[in-house]
Hints:
73% helix; mainly alpha
Amino acid sequence: MNAIKKYIAEFIGTFVLVLFACGTACAVGCDAVLGSGYLLTALAFGLVIVAMAYSIGNVSGCHINPAVSIAMLVSGKMTVKDFIGYVIAQFLGAIAGAAMLLVIFGKNCGFGANGLYKDDIIRSLIIEIILTFVFVIAILGVTSKIENGAVAGIVIGLSLVLVHLFGIALTGTSVNPARSFGPALFAGGAALSNVWVFIVAPLIGGVLAALVYKFLTSEKE
């Protein structure tokens, strides 16, 4: 039953992430030239993490992101069974969140879907790997010490704001396969055909962050 509660928490967290953060992008626009919508969207993503970290964090750890979950798996902080359960819950939550955006904004809202940087798959993969690496290694660092518990949610939320401030103008910033899949499923077209980039790259970034962090914090022989 405890595992089910964790999965439900992950579903809720990812649902809220897509609804409120991608929803903000739908509501205010996300044009880097205009600036305000760009900044508000970045803040929305970070603030959702803060809100969820201090609400469902004690239940599931508030991953709400397969890239974070795979980093925890590689770090030995979760089982394969829980990893699978988390990822399924996260994808279902993202789909439900995007479905709610359809209800609220209609089919032409864009859904906050990601897009290739200058139609370049390789550069888009590199960008997303780097963005995810920075985000996940920050999570691994701040959660590595119990005494950081009180501020961990804020640090993680601000780290997500940081990567969005840099990445929105490039790929729309994914760093989260579930967050990308849900909106792409409803946006269709290029967003859906290219969504594999925003699934693969964050997972690679998450694994690299876990391996690098493990190396940096390992004791010298």
